Amino acid sequence: MRGRGVTPRSKPHLFYLAFELLGLNRVATGCRVSDLSSKRSIEKTRGFQFEGLMRESGLNDAGEFEDELLYAILRRDWLQLYDKQHVTVVE
User: Fold this and answer.
1) How far is Cα 59 from Cα 56, in angstroms, rounded to an integer?
2) Which has more confidence, 90 or 25?
3) Which CATH superfamily is domain 6-84 in?
4) pTM above the 0.85 mark?
């Protein structure tokens, strides 16, 4: 689905699920430092803020430990940046 805009369009719906339906206060994500496409995708998402580096937190495809970048969005950030009226809930 790369390049088709599916991921950017789905994130507001995932945030709605997390913050409105599940009542969470924080959504976190991360990626290995070598995964540049995931890093770009996360950094293009409104609201996600870089929180830090988790040193050697997981194994990469070569079986070596690699650092991971950590990002998160808070409920209060989501409320300021996203309009929940644009999310349709199908029951």
Assistant:
1) 8
2) 25
3) Gcn5-related N-acetyltransferase (GNAT) (3.40.630.30)
4) no
